[in-house]
Amino acid sequence: AARLAGNAPAREISSLASLVTLTQRLGRGANTLLGSETVGPDVASAMAKDAASFGELLRAVIDVPSQRVAV
């Protein structure tokens, strides 16, 4: 919310929203792994893909300095 109020670029807001979504998906996958007696290979594969995407997005958000100009 602070980034949105601070007029952050749309791409940054979109990346942050994607991080939130991936966090929720990773949590759901972890619950499935811990709570199920049998887990399909698709769950582990989806978690690996989500973790990789999360890492890439996080690096992009951290490494790219904001283009905003101080007022």
Can you describe what's shown?
The structure is a single chain. The protein is mainly α. It has helices at residues 2-5, 10-35, 41-63. Helix 2 (10-35) runs antiparallel to helix 3. It is elongated, with a radius of gyration of 16 Å. The model has no long low-confidence stretch (mean pLDDT 83).
* Low-confidence runs of at least 5 consecutive residues: none
Helix % is over 70%
Q: Can you give the mean pLDDT?
A: 83
Q: Give the overall silhouette.
A: elongated
Largest sheet: none
Q: Tell me the quaternary state.
A: single chain
- Give the N-to-C terminal Cα separation: 19 Å
The total count of strands amounts to: 0
Evaluate the radius of gyration.
16 Å
Order of helices and strands: HHH
Structural category is mainly alpha
Our estimate of the beta-strand percent is under 5%
Give the number of helices. Answer: 3
Quickly list its features.
71 residues, mainly alpha
Short recap of the structure:
This protein is mostly helical and 71 residues long.
